[in-house]
Amino acid sequence: LSILLSLLAPAYPMKSPDSGGILTPSGLSYFAEVSKPHAETILRQDLMAPTDAEVFLGSPEPSSKSQITSVTVSDLSLVIIPHSGLRLSIDVDITASPAPSNTKELRLAIVADLQVEMNSAGDLELVTSACKPTLKEKQSSEEVESKSSSKELDKEINVNKICLEVSKLLLWPNEGLMSLTTPFPITPSCLVQYLPLAAPVFSEQGITLSLQTTFQVAGMEIPLPVNPMPFSVPEPVSSSSSHLTLAFSEQFYTNFFFALEVSGAFNMTIPSQTTTNAMAEKITQMSSLFQEDLPVIMQAVFRSSAQVTLVESKAALKLFFTIQIGAGSPDFQTILTVNVDVSSRLHLSVIDTRMKIAVGAIEDVEISLATSDVGPVPADLLEELFLPAIREEVPAQVNVVLSDGAPLPHVFGFTYKDASVVIHKDYVLVPCNLELELK
Questions:
Q1: For the chain, how big is the Rg over CA atoms in Å?
Q2: Where in this chain does the record put each Lipid-binding serum glycoprotein C-terminal domain (predicted)?
């Protein structure tokens, strides 16, 4: 395998994007909703921990130091700033007790601008470009900013420290972004990885991220051909009610099958439903090759890469096999070698975070003789002897290989629901909603 991959490496230059997705404003609102209890937990830890009391609260006199008794996030929102990034707004209600007989109600408002950047390692990072905290007493209409001259409220809470780590108040900061690029298994020896090509683009339609897919077989990355048609994530024609729309080019599916082919997953053994004696009745030269009646076996390998074609509402798959037909075990003796091309529908669906891929019944098949040790064999006789088994076994065995499907790009801790698959010419869209997995 390593020799094969080294031979392939010079043949394929860097490839272009073949997949991606758009996180819609609706999806961003869902992230904000599920981040709210997380933000409240983090703020409570920061503000109410006894070890932090002297940092966040109190006066110079130890006997009169304040204590925060409650922290509640009343509102958390995320909105897109087109061509720039995100704006995070958080309103926090705080109850503090400067003295046993006195309770103070405070409102902390945090407004932060966030950007998603790509670092030198190729990972996406969420960074804070601006943060403005505002603190006020609920009983007063006067707002007091973090740099206010009001020393009394300035001592109540160190809002600037919160701004230093404001992105941690979200449920999906950098750890989640990095999990997007984790290699996911297709088979025990084949992995898929989605790599961002650049920082995402922020627009009114959503956050668009273009990805290129890489595949690893036995720990080595497979060189893949360049997408013949430049691919970019299609913009929605109208505002979408779905949280997220994933997009996959025709090339993505071709690459997926190529990776499985290189891994040897499609090499298969097919029982022919005939024997050497039965074949000898139709091909007289067979009688001199085998002294006993043996089951005839077909050993199939890909002779060229699978072709996936996407048109409106339909995905088609064409497979190209070379099949050695023979008998004997453990010493297999080849009788015939045939080339077989099969065409069928490709069925796509989504379950959780995987795209399920299945091959339908063979709709078209071509068989031709490549080599023969028993003289010429007419095409109609090849079809009579071998096509029934090919029609039955090839889809069944290919579907066993495809049974786990293709992992979709996703952030750990979230799954997809209400997903649909919409096939267009040259690409597939998967509108879906996000769902936080409960631990």
A1: 31
A2: 238-432
Would you kindly state where each structural domain of the chain is located, as residue ranges?
25-49+66-138+148-179, 187-424
The per-residue pLDDT for range 23-53, each reduced to its tens digit, is 999 999 999 999 999 999 999 888 776 544 4
Mean pLDDT of the chain: 86
Contact residues for 17 (Cβ-Cβ < 8 A; gap 6+): 197, 210, 211, 212, 227, 231, 232, 233, 249
Nearest Cα to Cα of residue 340 among 383, 378, 297: 383
Output helix, strand, coil percentages for the chain, rounded to the nearest 5. Answer: 25, 45, 30
Query: Which residues share a beta bridge with 414?
Result: 436
Query: Span 114-121, mean pLDDT?
Result: 90
CA distance 402 to 394: 12
Q: What is the pTM of this model?
A: 0.86
Task: Please say whether the beta carbons of 234 and 158 come within 8 A.
Answer: no
CB 174 within 8 A of CB 166: no
pLDDT interval class at 15 (50, 70, 90): low
Q: How sure is the predictor about 155, in pLDDT bands with cuts at 50, 70 and 90?
A: low
List all residues 6 or more positions away from 53 whose beta carbon is below 8 Å from its beta carbon.
Answer: 65, 67
What gap in Å lies between CA 401 and CA 411, rounded to an integer?
A: 25
CA atoms within 13 A on the CB side of 142: 5
CATH superfamily ID and name for 187-424: Bactericidal permeability-increasing protein; domain 2 (3.15.20.10)
